[in-house]
Design brief:
With 504 residues, the protein is mainly α. It contains 22 helices and no strands. Helix 2 runs antiparallel to helix 9 (197-214) and helix 6 (122-152) packs across helix 17. The model is unreliable at 1-13, 434-446, 467-483 and 496-504 (pLDDT under 50).
């Protein structure tokens, strides 16, 4: 297939007005998702340890609050699998409508939830349940929004249009920080009494606006084409897992993004408070970093349309390995160092996050794209976003200043770097079939996972050899290693909480 023919095959004929409407829907959906998730994370560091875990020591209360936050990230892959299955089988639009309603209602209910002082042990239990519901809804939101935009967009501008999904994440982060910045101006007593509820209650308004726009969009043209050709598969999950290399590498590609996100917006808040920085200074610094991510993300996404996803993300990940320790060193120093360190982290987050939506959707065929992209993205969110605050808090308690945390950040960036290099370039892949477009250099994969058509026997044999046991172990072991902290965490929680009613 020559370049001209490839462009004709890959171009999608969605009307410009409809494409803009789809992009706006994706922007609003991910804005709500990240607003709710990052709002919860910041509130966990500021007030939840006092309101829902008052019997624990300050350290144990913070870790318990972070634990409920991590629970939401754990259910995100579950939501990605379940909702991705329905999205690949029956359509993207109906699933995306359900995710938006569920996320908005769950956040609103958190805003009216009684605290531990009112209903005792049931308060953290209900908080955990609502967080799990949030995780399931969020698990289906990003993947559906990303592929809806990419499947409507022209092949030459997938990075640009998919940046609406990524900008929505940054916008949600920024809006949550602005809301928190305003409520923390209240006196401490009023903040703990009712002020913290206001940002959660406002999420229902965002949900209403997003739902109004989402109901007006059309179904993905590539999915409608797959339905007309009867090329949908009975079990998208099993189809994806037959080629485990793709979802594992997709997870690795997104890992650093969520580690930096959780570091800057969740753990960084608690760590800066521990260092003695003023609360309002911390919140406004994090807000400024969120604004920088919002502005820089589309720039890196557009850049990936011109130089490729691999070049942008690999450069950013390699820079993260080098800058991990300097960022912590700056934060440990002074207020100006805190600002510079957070801004460097924000740039690394934007550079790894901007091309991510296009990269992950281009890795999978139409009949499994919702499931495959969601699994990779949500596993990265769970490992990077859900556990980073817990792991960093535990590493900080080991002594040695921020050296252990810096090493952890560098390892995560190294995993992303290796994953992106193994994935190869995806920006010119044909999303409607299994044929790989011509590109410069060596093509590491034969086409999107799950795409139509059967490759020759010799190619299947070569692919099976590349997916041998040694390769799988080399990929799985770093991810499994992220859970190695669990026994240490349990022992520390027992030590901190053993003589309270929260002991276990």
């Amino acid at each position: 297939m020559d370049k001209k023919t490839y462009e004709q095959v890959c171009s999608v004929t969605a009307p410009p007005a409809q494409l803009r409407r789809v992009a706006l829907s994706a922007l609003l959906g991910t804005t709500i998702e990240f607003y709710d998730f990052l709002l919860y994370g910041t509130m966990a560091a500021l007030v939840f340890n006092k309101l829902f875990f008052p019997s624990a020591s300050p350290v144990a209360g913070t870790m318990a609050a972070f634990g409920t936050m991590a629970a939401g990230y754990i259910t995100r892959p579950v939501g990605g699998v379940v909702l991705g299955h329905f999205g690949d089988r029956f359509g993207r639009k109906s699933v995306l409508t359900w995710t938006m309603v569920t996320m908005g209602v769950a956040s609103f209910l958190i805003g009216i939830l009684p605290t531990y002082r009112t209903i005792g042990i049931w308060a953290p239990i209900f908080l955990l349940i609502l967080r799990l519901v949030q995780g399931i809804a969020a698990g289906g939101e990003w993947g559906g929004s990303a592929l809806m935009v990419v499947e409507h967009a022209d092949s030459r501008r997938r990075g640009f249009w998919s940046s609406s999904v990524q900008v929505g994440a940054s916008a949600g982060s920024l809006v949550s920080k602005i809301a928190i910045s305003l409520v923390v101006l209240l006196p401490s007593e009023q903040l703990l009494a009712w002020g913290w509820r206001i940002p959660f209650l406002l999420s229902i308004l965002l949900c209403g606006v997003g739902l109004f726009v989402r109901l007006a969009i059309t179904e993905s043209p590539l999915f409608e084409q797959a339905q007309s050709e009867k090329s949908t598969v009975r079990s998208p999950l099993l189809t994806v897992l037959r080629t485990p290399r793709a979802p594992v590498l997709a997870c690795g590609a997104g890992l650093a993004t969520f580690v930096v996100l959780a570091f800057g917006h969740i753990y960084g808040v608690a760590y800066a408070l521990h260092l003695g920085y003023d609360e309002s200074t911390i919140i406004w610094t994090v807000t400024a970093s969120a604004l920088l991510v919002l502005l820089a993300t589309p720039v890196f996404a557009v850049l990936s349309d011109h130089v490729g996803r691999k070049a942008v993300m690999a450069t950013a990940a390699g820079s993260g390995v080098v800058l991990a320790y300097p960022i912590l060193w700056l934060i440990d120093g002074s207020t100006s160092g805190l600002v510079v360190g957070m801004m460097l982290a924000a740039l690394l987050q934007a550079a790894t996050y901007g091309p991510l939506a296009a990269l992950l959707t281009e890795m999978f065929g139409t009949n499994v794209r919702y499931t495959g992209a969601s699994i990779g993205y949500q596993m990265a969110a769970m490992l990077g976003g859900g556990f980073t605050p817990l792991i960093a808090t535990e590493l900080q308690s080991l002594g040695g200043g921020s050296a252990w945390v810096s090493a952890f950040l560098a390892i995560c960036f190294a995993i992303t770097l290796a994953s992106v290099l193994l994935i190869g370039e995806t920006s010119r892949r044909d999303l409607s079939g299994g044929q790989q477009p011509p590109t410069r250099g060596t093509i590491r994969t034969a086409g999107p996972v799950g795409a139509g058509g059967n490759p020759p026997k010799r190619l299947r044999k070569a692919a099976d050899e590349r997916r041998g046991t040694r390769f799988r172990m080399s990929i799985y072991l770093p991810i499994v290693g992220c859970f190695a902290w669990a026994p240490v965490f349990v022992r520390r929680m027992r030590a901190e909480m053993g003589r309270t009613e929260w002991g276990f």
